[in-house]
């Protein structure tokens, strides 16, 4: 199964692999999803798996509480390398979360990914102009689901997708803990603000 480009949902996810773990409800609904104003603007990203190319993220807040994120890969071919996602943000304890849904990839609507739910991302600030983004680790998510630490499903096979199906209340309670934050693996991307 492919991974979509955008943070994936982002540029490292331009590689072929399984779809990252998703949730049936956005993380943070019980505390309220609101635009994080610290994200607004243009950021240059370095993906952890690709030191050669920069990826540019433009966070554009909307009045409906979502953020449109336009991602463009530097040096992309004329027929690819850009995506648009709708993102919501929330803070649970000391953990900052993005919930991403891909809308367009290289100019084409991505209805298949919308049906999957949202891709949760953990982000942390390293100073005023630097953010580190963490993608949920697939093996950790599957292990948590199979150990009944959080409700969810795991598709069959080595590359089966993981979906966290916990209620909004249970999902947020879990994600506010160290166990919830530990599902997010190593650095996925480091973003530096440009303007």
Write a structural description.
There is one protein chain. The chain is mainly β. 14% of the residues lie in helices and 42% in strands. It has four helices and twelve strands, in the order E-E-E-E-E-E-E-H-E-E-H-E-E-H-H-E. It has an eight-stranded antiparallel beta barrel. A three-stranded mixed beta sheet has the order 1-11-10, covered by helices on one side.
Can you describe this structure in just a few lines?
The protein has helices spanning 111-116, 138-146, 168-175, 178-181; strands at residues 22-23, 41-47, 50-61, 67-73, 82-92, 95-105, 108-109, 119-125, 130-136, 152-154, 162-164, 184-193.
Shape annotation = globular
**Residue runs with pLDDT of under 50 for 5 or more positions:** 1-17
> Which class do the helix and strand fractions yield?
mainly beta
Question: What fraction of the residues are assigned to beta strands by DSSP?
Answer: 35-45%
Strand order of the largest sheet: 2-3-4-5-6-8-9-12
What percent of the residues sit in helical stretches (DSSP H or I)?
Answer: 10-25%
Rg result: 16 Å
Number of strands: 12
Main beta-sheet strand count, sense and barrel state: 8 strands, antiparallel, barrel
Q: Secondary-structure element order, as H and E?
A: EEEEEEEHEEHEEHHE
| N/C terminus separation | 36 Å
Please give the oligomerization state of what you see.
single chain
């Amino acid at each position: 199964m492919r991974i979509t480009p955008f943070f994936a949902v982002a540029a490292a996810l331009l590689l072929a692999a399984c779809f990252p773990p998703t949730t049936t409800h956005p993380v943070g609904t019980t505390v309220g999803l609101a635009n994080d104003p610290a994200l607004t603007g243009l950021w240059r990203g370095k993906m952890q798996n690709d030191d050669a190319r920069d990826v540019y993220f433009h966070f554009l807040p909307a009045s409906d509480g979502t953020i449109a994120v336009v991602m463009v890969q530097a040096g992309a071919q004329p027929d690819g390398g850009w995506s648009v996602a709708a993102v919501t943000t929330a803070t649970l304890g000391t953990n900052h979360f993005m919930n991403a849904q891909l809308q367009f990839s290289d100019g084409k609507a991505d209805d298949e990914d919308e049906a999957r739910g949202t891709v949760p991302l953990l982000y942390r600030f390293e100073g005023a102009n630097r953010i580190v983004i963490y993608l949920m680790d697939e093996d950790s998510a599957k292990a948590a689901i199979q150990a009944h630490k959080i409700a969810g499903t795991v598709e069959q096979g080595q590359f089966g997708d993981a979906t966290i199906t916990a209620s909004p209340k249970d999902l947020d309670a879990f994600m506010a803990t160290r166990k919830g934050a530990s599902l997010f693996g190593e650095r996925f991307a480091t973003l530096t603000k440009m303007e």
